[in-house]
Amino acid sequence: MKTDDLIAMLATGAGPVDGGAPRRRFAAALAGGGVLSLLILATVLGINPGLAQASQAPMFWTKLAYCATLAAAATAFAMRLGRPGARAAGAAAMLALPLLAMAVLAAFAAIGASGPEREALVFGTTWRACPFNIAMLALPLFAASLWAMRGLAPTRPALAGAAAGFPSGAAAALVYSLHCPELGAPFLVIWYPLGMLIPAAVGALAGPRLLRW
Prior knowledge:
By secondary structure, the protein is mainly α. It is built from nine helices and no strands. The longest helix is centred in the C-terminal third of the chain and has 26 residues, at about 185-210. The radius of gyration is 20 Å and the shape is globular. The two termini are about 25 Å apart.
């Protein structure tokens, strides 16, 4: 059989590619995983009893926007990596913007604080538990994101696994904000991303095995 005939035979009956499939898969994954993450928060960690008072501070809403923006940018990056040939550089650059904005806020807060105050801004009262709590809440989100990525066609499994893990961590950090009392920008720019990187690291290790074609 000639090559042209083989190509024609394989292409017979092929329809147009559904460009909205990655978006729908990740939306379903984050929605379903988010509900389970909220249930874990409510049953294991609990809602911050001072949440109503904390919500009156502008920094509380800044924290929510920070986590939500990271989750959106990381999801866009993951969807790009799930499509062979798609350029992911722009989506990756978008990840840096919320981190940079929070880093600027952290720098201003640290400059205007004394030594003990600066230490409190960086470590708060929950720095030891924060990254691990975020990673725990990310478990259902991570499993759902891997499911979403497996339904696509990633060509770089390790990177795709990490890309599936990071939005899981960012969405988990958003959920964790309902429990976490910390509002200092230096704390948020250090310990929250560390929590997000845990599922990303696990995804990078698991990707070559779970996302291989």
